[in-house]
UniProtKB/TrEMBL annotation:
Catalytic activity: nicotinate beta-D-ribonucleotide + ATP + H(+) = deamido-NAD(+) + diphosphate
Function: Catalyzes the reversible adenylation of nicotinate mononucleotide (NaMN) to nicotinic acid adenine dinucleotide (NaAD).
Gene name of the encoded protein: nadD
Taxonomic lineage: Bacteria, Pseudomonadati, Pseudomonadota, Gammaproteobacteria, Lysobacterales
Family, per entry: Belongs to the NadD family.
Recorded metabolic or biological pathway in which this protein acts: Cofactor biosynthesis; NAD(+) biosynthesis; deamido-NAD(+) from nicotinate D-ribonucleotide: step 1/1
Name of the protein this chain belongs to: Probable nicotinate-nucleotide adenylyltransferase
Single GO BP term: NAD+ biosynthetic process
UniProt-listed NCBIfam families: cyt_tran_rel (TIGR00125), nicotinate (nicotinamide) nucleotide adenylyltransferase (TIGR00482), PRK00071.1-1 (NF000839)
Pfam family, one: CTP_transf_like
E.C. designation(s): 2.7.7.18
Main enzyme class: transferase
Cytidyltransferase-like domain residues: 6-182
Length: 213
């Protein structure tokens, strides 16, 4: 069975950067990839769009292909969406299948602030994307935690179910949801930064237009 990789995020809204890195991860890791929107993200201000709107945009964005899937399980849980809880559930359900938690370099640098973050290495491999525009040294405790874990994504990391850190060299795309929200709030239409299908979803543009950006 192929490894199962998860890209968690706010997806407020989903953009071409998310789709591109998720797609390239599926190729680099030969993995099934699921996009998993967070209900109440623990590390940031609440999303502008509702969970239903973000899911509708994700569904529209993922239409027409079957390599990337939507996994909405975190939206059904009360309280903050902790990745460690999601991975515990996935581990229980997937047996010894290799799991990979995907994230951009920005998210990775903040890992030591995540709930029970050391446990993540016991539950999954971590796949870290390069992210243009983001440059920060990893904090010392993160550096210590990944010592001996960095492995080549083209190697045989998948013979173990968890514990490695894979650096994924993806096509650099300096696109963020923050910038897209700002453009929308200014009344602009970032047509080609967003997947085409989202423009058929009714009502969502107004939600971002009304927000302060
Ligand atoms: P925001 O600007 O609101 O923080 P975002 O664009 O970072 O949003 P998220 O939904 O927070 O999007 O991101 C989900 C995951 O995808 C995170 O791990 C993030 O680092 C990663 N990611 C998002 N955009 C890119 C990109 N252009 N390149 C690499 N990784 C990305």
């Amino acid at each position: 069975m192929k490894p199962l990789a998860i890209l968690g995020g706010t997806f407020d809204p989903v953009h071409i950067g998310h789709l591109c890195v998720a797609w390239e991860a599926s190729e680099l890791l030969d993995a099934e990839v699921r996009l998993m929107p967070a209900g109440v993200p623990p590390h940031r201000t609440p999303p502008v769009a509702s969970a239903e709107q973000r899911v509708a945009l994700l569904r529209a964005a993922l239409a027409g292909q079957d390599r990337l899937q939507l996994d909405p399980r975190e939206l059904g849980r009360d309280g903050p969406s902790y990745s460690v809880d999601t991975l515990e559930a996935l581990r229980a359900e997937q047996g010894d299948r290799p799991l990979v938690l995907l994230m951009g370099a920005d998210a990775f640098a903040s890992l030591p602030s995540w709930h029970r973050w050391s446990r993540l290495f016991e539950l999954a491999h971590l796949g870290v994307f390069t992210r243009p525009g983001f440059k920060a040294a990893w904090p010392a405790d993160l550096d210590a935690a990944i010592t001996g874990r960095l492995v080549d994504p083209a190697g045989d990391w998948y013979v173990r179910e968890a514990g490695s850190v894979l650096q994924l060299e993806v096509t650099p795309l300096e696109i963020s949801a923050t910038r897209i929200r700002r453009l929308l709030a200014e009344g602009r239409v970032p047509r080609y930064l967003l997947p085409e299908g989202v423009f058929d979803v009714p009502g969502w543009l107004e939600v971002y237009r009304r927000s302060p950006g």
